[in-house]
């Protein structure tokens, strides 16, 4: 299985998936921390991949998603965006319905 295949499988297996630096309990950069804090306010669950422990995914994902930085939030296999997009969508109320329709736990 190629790295791209693995990424596509992760996206298909997880309705809401955050590729981030660190873990939700211990984010390793401010942008990942901001994304996790924003997602916490929704009360919805999500899967995550710590790209610091998955160097092949960290290297390949930007070319798959066409998004150069981390974190990256995917809902229903589609890229939503990074930290600033997540925070803005929480503030304008547009992220919550997307999470609910995706079946975030």
Descriptive report:
By secondary structure, this protein is α+β, with helices and mostly antiparallel strands. The protein has a single domain, classed as Glutaredoxin, CATH 3.40.30. It is built from five helices and six strands. The chain has helices at residues 3-13, 30-40, 55-65, 83-92, 95-102; strands spanning 16-20, 22-23, 26-27, 47-50, 72-75, 78-81. The chain has a four-stranded mixed β-sheet with strand order 4-1-5-6. The protein has a two-stranded antiparallel ribbon with strand order 2-3. Residues 16-80 form the Glutaredoxin domain.
List keywords for this structure.
single chain; alpha+beta; Glutaredoxin; 6 strands
Could you please say which CATH topology applies here? Glutaredoxin
Largest sheet: 4 strands, mixed
Q: How large, in whole angstroms, is the Cα Rg?
A: 13 Å
Please write the string of helix (H) and strand (E) elements. HEEEHEHEEHH
Number of helices: 5
**Uncertain stretches:** none
Order of neighbouring strands in the sheet with most strands = 4-1-5-6
Could you tell me the number of beta strands?
6
**Shape call:** globular
Strand content: 15-25%
Gap between N and C termini: 28 Å
Oligomer kind: single chain
Domain count, please report it: 1
Q: CATH architecture, please?
A: 3-Layer(aba) Sandwich
| CATH structural class | Alpha Beta
| SS-derived structural category | alpha+beta
- Give the helix level as a range of percent: 40-55%
Overall mean confidence score, pLDDT: 95
Give the CATH superfamily.
Glutaredoxin
Binding site for [2Fe-2S] cluster: 29
Protein name: Glutaredoxin
Family: Belongs to the glutaredoxin family. Monothiol subfamily.
Domain Glutaredoxin: 16-80
